[in-house]
Write a structure and sequence with these properties.
41% helix, 7-stranded mixed sheet, single chain, 283 residues, 12% strand, alpha/beta
């Protein structure tokens, strides 16, 4: 079994996507939790990375440049891909992210329009107010619905309106996992399959992505059951696949006040292996 450290967390989100904390506030919390190395992995944007790195300097925290790309397949739904050590100044990469965000905007407008047709008079402006500059995502719509009193809890918004098979759902432009791997590689990054425990059929996905060029798999994640973790380690045996881990932190919303940030950690060699793989790709 891989040795773990409680000082590294390689999966978290800020207000640049669908997290509740600003990069500054997230760094403060990471410092409180004793973390020394983290990765900002916002959905389809790198806007939170530099502010986090600037805030982290005062605490001696290392912030790796990261991203979580929203890939999916028709058969399995979401198959998200984490990218580490990406070149955030890569113009083609940023142009692709801008196009993703534009599609998210129109998708969000479509879901609000459907809600209105279903008798839920949610104002688009209220969704924008919650999202701010972040790419519009379903959690923003759900939170706007909760704030306006149209649902009693966030899960109700998904169950009754926003889930994949719910009446207000709008499908999005589908980026394949292979396209996500290619996009990350094009920016010099390292591509890691996120939370296989949340993928409907993660084993066939791994079987097709490993020969395609996948660099790693997220071993430790709150939604990876023990059997998933064991199977992931089996996939990695005898290969160069990098095993990672992170809390997938979005907000401090536990009823008991507990903080999940830092509770799921990568193997001790994960960061150096990610760094070495990125250097190899750059070379």
């Amino acid at each position: 079994m891989c040795a773990m450290t409680n000082q590294t967390d390689l999966h978290m989100h800020t207000t640049a996507s669908d997290g509740d904390l600003t990069p500054d506030a997230l760094i403060d919390l990471a410092h409180e939790q004793g973390l020394t190395t983290i990765a900002i992995t916002d959905h389809d944007t790198t806007d939170g990375v530099v502010p986090a790195q600037q805030a982290a300097a005062a605490h001696g925290i290392t912030v790796l440049p990261g991203i979580e790309l929203s890939a999916e397949t028709e058969e399995d739904g979401d198959v998200h891909m984490l990218g580490y050590f990406i070149n955030m100044d890569d113009a083609a990469f940023q142009k692709a992210l801008e196009e993703f965000r534009e599609r998210r905007y129109h998708r969000g407008r479509g879901m609000v329009r459907k809600l209105n047709e279903l008798g839920v008079p949610l104002a688009w402006e209220s969704v924008q107010a919650i999202a701010g500059d972040a790419p519009i995502a379903r959690p923003h719509i759900a939170r706007a619905m909760l704030k306006a009193g149209f649902v009693n809890e966030l899960q109700e918004a998904f169950d009754n309106y926003l889930a994949d098979d719910a009446p207000a759902y709008v499908s999005r432009h589908r980026m394949s996992p292979e396209e996500a791997v290619d996009l990350i590689h094009s920016a010099g990054g390292v591509a890691v399959l996120a939370h296989p425990g949340l993928v409907k059929r993660y084993e066939p996905i791994l079987e097709r992505l490993i020969p395609y060029g996948l660099d790693g798999i997220e071993l430790n994640h709150p939604k990876n059951a023990p059997d998933v973790r064991e199977r992931v380690k089996q996939f990695a045996e005898g290969t160069d696949l990098i095993l990672t881990g992170g809390s997938d932190f979005h907000r401090p919303d536990r009823a008991d006040g507990a903080i999940s940030l830092g509770t799921e950690n990568p193997p001790d060699d994960a960061v150096e292996r990610l760094r070495a793989k990125a250097a190899e790709r750059a070379g």
